[in-house]
Amino acid sequence: MILEEVATVLSEASLEELEASSSEEQFLQIYLDGDLSFLLPVKTLVEIIKISIDQVVPMFQMAPWVMGVYNCRGEVLWMMDLNHFLGLPPWYEQDNSMTKHTAVVIKAPRSAEKWAKDNRPTLGLIVNRVEGMVSSPSEAIQPLPTGFAEPGLMPFLSGVWQAGTGANHLILDSTAILRAAAHLEP
């Protein structure tokens, strides 16, 4: 149901329209390592897919968080275990009996300086689950205080949003994740 809701929102309006429609920023709420919640900017979201891990072809001599490649409608899509990449327990160590896993496909935003407009990298991130879309007023997003998160996680976070409930939502920096995955210098 959540995937259908996100797909409907993305199909009804282009990402540019979503960004320009208000001063609010749109995020996809994802969960890693059980119930650890993160927000992923919608402006980098391509799609959400369900895949079977046995459809991912392992690649040798890669970083341990690189799961391999996946044939996504005839295109090669590199798959990454986002838990493992961020220093959390890898997907294979988690108590999980699912046959299909959720992959969030991201692409560098059009404004990314490092990549040409037509050569923006695309990456599939295996996550525990997707919860839905949330909006936050731009001014409510705060920079991360020093020591707010684990040191290995800090380079991949762009800020924090404290919801009206008092819960802190960490915002992932998709461009930093793509740079690290592509071994590009920031």
List keywords for this structure.
single chain, 186 residues, alpha+beta, OB fold (Dihydrolipoamide Acetyltransferase, E2P), six-stranded mixed β-sheet, five-stranded mixed β-sheet, 4 helices, 11 strands, 16% helix, globular
What does this structure look like?
By secondary structure, this protein is α+β, with helices and mostly antiparallel strands. It has a single domain (24-182), classed as OB fold (Dihydrolipoamide Acetyltransferase, E2P) (Beta Barrel). The chain is built from 4 helices and 11 strands; from the N terminus they run ααβββββαββββββα. The protein has helices spanning 2-12, 15-20, 82-85, 174-182; strands spanning 24-32, 36-41, 45-51, 66-72, 75-81, 101-107, 122-127, 129-137, 141-142, 157-162, 168-172. The chain has a 6-stranded mixed beta sheet. The chain has a 5-stranded mixed beta sheet with strand order 3-6-7-5-4. The longest helix has 11 residues, at 2-12. It is globular and about 40 Å long.
